[in-house]
Amino acid sequence: MHYEPHEYQRYATEKIIDLPACGLFLEMGLGKTVSTLTAINELIYDRFEVGMVLVIAPKRVADDTWTSEAEKWDHLQHLTFSKILGTAAQREAALQARADIYLINRENVVWLADKLRRQWPFDMVVVDELSSFKSNQAKRFKALRAIRPLVKRFVGLTGTPAPNGLMDLWPEVYLLDCGERLGKTITGYRDRYFYPGKRNGYTVFTWEPKEGAEEAIHQKISDICISMKAEDYLRLPEQVVNDIRIRLAPEEIQKYRELEKEKLMELDGQEITALSAAAVWGKLLQLANGAVYDDDGGATMLHDKKLDALEEIVEAACGHPVLVFYNFRHDYDRLMARFERLSPRTIQTSGDIRDWNAGRIRLLLAQPASMGHGLNIQAGGHIIVWFGLNPSLELYQQANARLHRQGQKQAVIIHRLITKGTVDEDVIKKLETKDQRQDSLMEAVKARIRRYKQ
User: Fold this and answer.
1) Which of 157, 288, 320, 433 supports an S-S bond with 419, CB 3.0-4.6 Å?
2) Pairing state of beta strands 53-57 and 21-26?
3) Chain-centre distance of CA 271, in angstroms?
């Protein structure tokens, strides 16, 4: 695909190239990854200023997102990657491989820093989701702080640099500039810009910013940090679709194909009707989501990859409400179990609507068919996640319209979780082509049966 960057993406790329340290504070959906990869490509192959790049990211992002983004765009497809993931032996092998970009999950940063120490080979480091280094007491922060002087170029990416307040900024900015702007210590930063809030004797529980502190801090870091919100760069109400490709492990995709074949062969030799095709399609969609229930209520568990991906989206949202669409009851049960700590809610009463619009519900679970026309919940959030895809274009558009409508103050970001190699990809194609023919599901089922009979 040919890359035609928006002006703000072009600006972000230029800043990464021009600055040895850069904080790119862009909201999800504004293209942080492609902007950064474009800069890396120029620094390596056009300017010859960088030799080896390390990207630190959440595990699933490190395993898939960066490589998938490079595969998507024509100008990035020549970039090579090595994933420092898995067992110690696998990580060792990945370190020895030759590549432009090395990807590691943040949990292994301490291991990597301890192993390489003064032999640090990466002249550029990119931290995807810099806010995950907001604790100055965390081992991962201390490990990265120790090797920071060995890095020529450092880029921090996040949409929420201060999720819990301005105190979060010091560790993140320290990694960018080694303490040049906000001070060498958290104590100095705290004394300069904050005063004690809630306390018990000498124990201070909260620190409150002094008058003018926020403006002063922003001014201090404005030369190296770029802050962009979707609402500032997209005409509102805008809708940004972010497809998240879920890659199954080899044994998981093999199991999926075995089960898919079993379900499809049940129809082989029979007249395939719209009703029978829809029933089988529903089973295959359940498999793509990670679990399928048989007619007796027994469950076959396949994977938790979509739950893991949703976990990362919720974490990156940093407290912003998230609306999750699911299709099957057992998906609801799995979502409730995984996110029990967030007390997920559904909309049952007008009180639920008021709570959502007031921002009192962090995770809202909804079945698309239940989100009828006229349900005004756009004030409560702007982030949608399709945990389970639905082939009905009408339901898809109607559900998205609950947030993407007049009165929405922010760009609506729609994350679609797509399990690679499964019927999820067929659903996306159907939605993209707006194919709503009654017999399209029957044709899709017949096509899948033919593949297994070849």
Assistant:
1) 288
2) unpaired
3) 42
CATH class assigned to 231-454:
alpha beta
- pLDDT tens-digit profile of 321-351? 999 999 998 899 999 999 999 999 998 887 8
Q: Which residue has the higher pLDDT, 26 or 77?
A: 77
Cβ atoms of residues 272 and 281 within 8 Å:
no
Residue bearing tokens 């793509």: 288
User: Among residues of the chain, what percentage have pLDDT more than 70?
Assistant: 91
pLDDT band at 391 (very low <50, low <70, confident <90, very high): confident
67 exposed, middle or buried (CB, 10 Å; 0-12, 13-18, 19+)? middle
**Predicted TM-score (pTM) of this structure:** 0.66
- Name every residue whose Cβ is closer than 8 Å to that of residue 56 and which is 6 or more positions away in sequence: 62, 104, 105, 106, 109, 125, 126, 127, 128, 144
- The CA–CA distances, whole Å, from 354 to 38, 214, 322, 358, 446 equal 43, 31, 15, 6, 46
pLDDT at residue 390, rounded to an integer:
86
Instruction: Identify the CA nearest to 174 among candidates 215, 210, 149, 145.
Output: 145
Q: Which residue, among 167, 181, 165, has the nearest Cα to 224 in the 3D structure?
A: 181
Q: Of 321, 27, 351, 8, which Cα lies nearest the Cα of 161?
A: 27
Which amino acid appears at position 424 of this protein?
A: D
CATH number of 7-228: 3.40.50.10810
Contacts 24+ apart (CB under 8 A), 208-214: 209/165, 209/166, 213/166, 214/166
Average pLDDT over residues 389-418: 86
Q: In the chain, where are the structural domains located?
A: 7-228, 231-454
